[in-house]
Amino acid sequence: QVQLQESGPGLVKPSQTLSLTCTVSGGSIKSGSYYWSWIRQPAGKGLEWIGRIYTSGSTNYNPSLKSRVTISVDTSKNQFSLKLTSVTAADTAVYYCARSEFYYYGMDVWGQGTTVTVSS
Amino acid sequence: EIVLTQSPDTLSLSPGERATLSCRASQSVGSIYLLWYKHQPGQAPRLLIYGASTRATGIPDRFSGSGSGTDFTLTISRLEPEDFAVYYCQVYGPSDYTFGQGTKLEIK
After folding, report:
1. What digits encode the pLDDT tens for the residues B79-90?
2. What residues have CB less than 8 Å from A108, skipping those under 6 apart?
3. Which of B43, B47, B101 is the closest to A107 by Cβ?
């Protein structure tokens, strides 16, 4: 079955760029009709959807983050990535990647999450 | 952009009791797009319900979803110890996903 695993630096300095990768195993990222999303949860707060990339390569982003977010896919590595620029302490959170299937829409496969702290 | 408001923020119940969680949308939502998740500390969220009322794979039948339009409900018929967690509703949109703020289900 498909599994997801997030990776990337656990500590990022303010004003720098946060970069995370989600590696897909047990299936091809380019097969089927799937959305590949990033979600985050600051400590003590709820889930916040960051953005998604579709199998076709089209992307959608949370309007509140759109100016700072880029999600891309590397099919050769079976990975998709998140870049968040100009980070502040407010971007400190647990970051999850997740998969959802077109037409069913629910995020049925999730990574375990990775904690990113923004601090100097 | 659709806003989802969940109620109550916290629900205190005992094992064996029935839990009813509400999710209200700021505008009408197609049922196919309404989802529910369970989130336990230190774990990834888990999909419970899709299409407003269809249980995801492996979800026990004590979980049920209902509703249409702007009002949706997640019901847990008889609470088990492992059901105490935070529950989120979510809606899929053509250009985004939106989560509700969550309902914390705690042991009374």
Report:
1. 999 999 999 999
2. A99, A100, A101, B47, B56, B57
3. B47
